[in-house]
Amino acid sequence: MGSFSDKWYPFQTRTIARFSGSAGFFLLCIILCAPLYSSCAALIAAARSGGGVSSKPQVLNVRVFGGNSEAAPPIITRAPQNVFGTPQDQNGQNAAANDASGVIGSSFVTVEVDVQCAVQPAFIATLTHCDAFWVEDKNFVINDPSLRITQIQVFQANTFSRYFTHRARFTVPSSEVQLRFSGNWKAKIFDAEDMATPIGEARFFVVDQETATSLVLLPDGYSPRIGGTSPAANLVEAAISAPPQFFDENFHTVTLYRAWRWNEPFVITQKPDQSRVEQMYGRSSKITVLGFSGGQKRFRITAVPAENEYRVLDIRDALRFPASTAPLRFALADLRRNGVMFMRADDGAFSSAGVQASRDEYVLMEFVLASEGAPSSREIFVMGSFNNWQALPDWKMRYDSTLHQYTLAQWIRRGRHNYLYASGTLSKQTGTVEAYDFEECEGNSLSANHTFYALFYYRNPQFGGYDALLGAAAANTSRRGR
Fold it and tell me: Is the dihedral of CA 278, 279, 280, 281 positive or negative?
């Protein structure tokens, strides 16, 4: 598969030094007409999608990944730093980005934004530092207002696209912006003509790998909400060996994430203003923080549901899944599972490998889930790599009482996706999905292939105090360590 630049061609204004004869005049006409062609193609694509045409960009999807690899987590890992000064190596020289083999993370992250817009849009991204709990820091030293990216490439979708019209792309850090502080970061994407409200957001992490870390997964159990569901769960323990210059109490929190589910943190913290019991999926898990013993500090959480192997939606083949205004579906409906799986998935990631540039588009797909008797007492949602693993109101399924099945039609980017069915409650007050879980439709299996990432936070007292990330570790449930 070629690079993005091999397949997409940005419309840019170029200075023409001189033209000679009819060939030069013809080339000049092409260049001058390029913006008009871009606008017309956008109008055609918007009309095909069945939606109204808007001069304001309508965000369809935002995704972020490490480096140039769609399978790499959005973690920037740098060489060991002196957190109270400037980055240095053992010889006192400035340290470079760490791209060594086996290191968790990349030297940069890539952000992609797919939009529908009648004219070619322009974007600006601002970078915001957050604490371990994704609360934005109010300190203007940490959150420098000048941390913004304006050099964002915008590419025209191919002429066959029926749903999206443009794709924007940028990397962090870049020649325009460098990140001084480690920790949690948000890239907020704005329409250049409206800087009041962001139209999209991407989360990523910057880690200064200061010390040795580890992550261990052990079999455990829990009490399922629904009787008959497998009680399979994981006990997760993250450990860090802190150097002598760091204070024990300042290593205060570890957050755990399943790969690609960056909106579902399991928080293990000793901070007094945070609960000692982690609430996730509407139930409690006991957490324990043990002080430095034998040179280690350990963060433990019990009864994390094992969940199931992800389902796979592979729509790379344009012959089997042609672009159409009518929703496409598989021959057979999905069935509920209880720890049963038939094929390995991709650890929750999306892959566009094998998708030709002329077929890189969105396909209208219909998900069908058989109710197998009485419908659920809660609402059913589709979550996967196509919606950044979020339980969203627009992804709530409709129940057909005649056919006894749930259905949902949604536009999905062509490629190979992983997904699950979740059950939860859509709050009328907040418009968000509350207390969702996967046990009703998916069940649990200790053999599911899930990678957990542990991120270690240190409260750096400098500059008014901020949560620095001084370590990362990963472990896979099928291998029980990494």
Answer: positive
